[in-house]
Design a protein that fits this description.
Layout: H1 15-19, H2 26-29, E1 51-58, H3 64-68, H4 71-80, E2 82-89, H5 94-107, E3 113-115, H6 119-128, H7 144-152, H8 155-160, E4 171-174, E5 184-188, H9 189-195, H10 203-215, E6 260-263, E7 266-269, H11 274-288, H12 301-308, E8 317-320, E9 332-335, E10 356-357, E11 360-362, H13 369-377, H14 382-390, E12 394-397, E13 400-403, H15 412-419, E14 427-429, H16 451-454, H17 470-496, H18 502-515, H19 518-534
Parallel strand pairs: 1-2, 1-3, 4-14
Antiparallel strand pairs: 3-11, 4-10, 5-8, 5-9, 6-7, 12-13
Length: 536
Amino acid sequence: MKGFRKLVVLGLISTVVLSACSTKGDEQQTQEPVSSTTPNEKIQFPLKESVTISVLHFNPTFDSEQFQKRVAVQDMFKETNIKLEYHISNAASAADRETFLKLALASGNYYDIILGVPDNVLSMYAASGAILPLEKYINDDITPNYMKAVKLRPQLKKVATDPSGHVYSMPIMIEVYQQWMENNFIINKSWLSKLGLKEPKTTDELYTVLKAFKEQDPNGNGIADEIPLTLIDEEAFAHLEAFMGSFGLAYKHGLNDGYTIIDNGKVEFAPIRPEYKEGIKFLRKLYTEGLLDKEVFTQKQANLSAKYQNAEDIVGSTVHKNTTSFKNPSHYSVIAPPAAPGRTPKVWVNPGVLGKRSSVVITKNNKYPEHTMALMDKYYNTQEFLKLNYSPLAYMDNGILKYKDLPAGAVYAAYGQENFFGGSWPGMVLEEDIGTKALVPPDTVQGTEYIPINKPYFAKDIWPRPQFTTEETEKLIQLRTDIFTFVKNMKAKFITDPKTNIDAEWDNYINSLKKMKLNEFLDIMQAAYDRYNAVK
């Protein structure tokens, strides 16, 4: 997301930054934080006296001085009298970042705040006492905005709570739904119009439309180059799994989601459900008749983009984030997922909309934990959070947050890097505040028109990506390698191999997954989900 960009980690480990992490001696490092307030003292901004808090931030493109010059960083100081003193590390990869943090932990030299602590290192820091559990600072005096937010969105507390029961990093939640609807069903409306066809409401009607796209030369070039439906197996925005929404399954593959769905509080594995089998059989029919792209299991994003960008339309339908990916975007429309017989369609929404850990932690070296928490709390307010993320474009007009146009010649991405706050800072944007307290952020306007189309089909119970213990993570890594590979291979076989009888092989397929300890995999996922729901 452009305005709410996630932390990116590139570059090399910087020993210079590591040695500069702190000038405090090791003896002082082991002490409890020395606070200038009591835990329940109210903090009013701007502070009467300035406070400086050091921040370690992983960023691939900016040095500390450049980051310090960002308008949003300066605005934060003016509004609060808290100066965030940034120290940038460009650790090259997740592995390098982990090594960097482990060295800092061992030496006792680390900053007051660290942005971008991965889960596997977070548990290590927590066990050592190097980072602070935040519960005692979460109250009506220090974090009044967050306390109000939790009453409105109880899941904030759930996503922030570690499996140990502690909160080590405050959550971030952005209810800008167009950012989380990754897989809209898109159809070539100009082809529909030319062939006198209506939007398909069911999969039977979709089949008829796809047949017409293949056989009636809708692009009018006299060549049978039309691709009625194109998808990519296990790709972020055009993935085959999204098509299963028509059959009542809203799920996603991958490490975070594991093909899981929630059914009446129970974690289940989508690829063994009857709905999945129905969807696979329908896709097999489309593939066999040349209505589904023959490259569905072999093409990459670059191949798909080339098809989208063909000067003359060749794509009839697909699943994707938006229509702007096409050469002729005005020819395409987002429609509701066509319903399979006897099924109610569902739309998968990225569970990030429920909130997630911000990855910002407070270390025991921080002398001002209350001030730091109060600073984070300031942004559990839609207007304040958007002001931070869109400074200096954001301004207030009669109680509504609005945005100026970019300066002439400015490019949004570059302008944001030079001015916006960046990073995964805690805070929230509430859906009900968009339009009433703040306009739609300027870089997220695209896709707002898709919300009323999809919202009636949003899955009510979605896998929320709960946190796992270290032991659970290690076991999941072992189990899912075989399970996921087998599902992927069998999916391709079921759809593309004409010799395969899906009905005849289905029981053997499920039994094979059970032998791979699918039940153990699901038990771990269920335990994490139950733990998530137990947080009150």
